[in-house]
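Can anyone check this?
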Amino acid sequence: MYKEPTKEQRNKTRNRIITVVVVVCALVIALVIALNVVFSNAREQGAASIRNTILNAAMQCAAIEGSFPTNLSYLEDNYDLRVNHEDYVVIYEVLGSNVLPSIVVVPR
C-alpha cells in the first residue's frame, strides 16, 4: 500500500539532496584548485629547467670556443638547444664575451 510522504520526510529528502550537491560542488572546486597549483608548479619547474639547460649550453660553448655566445639563436643553431618559445619567454643578455650571460625564463 502506498503512503504519501509526510512533510517531515520530504524536508529530510530535500536536505539530503542539498547536502550531496554542496559536497560535490566543494569537491569539484577543491579539485580545480589542486590542479591549478600542480600545473603552476610544473610550469615554474619547467622554466627553471630551461634556464639551467641554456646556462649549461652557454658554458659548453665558452669552454669550446673561448667566449660566451652573443645570442640565444647561436646556441639553438650550433649546440642543438631547443626552447619552447610559445610557452616560455627567454631573456638572454650578454654583458661581455668573458662574462656569464644573464638568463631569465618566464612562463607565459
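Reply from J.R.: I decoded it. The chain is about 60% helix and 10% strand.
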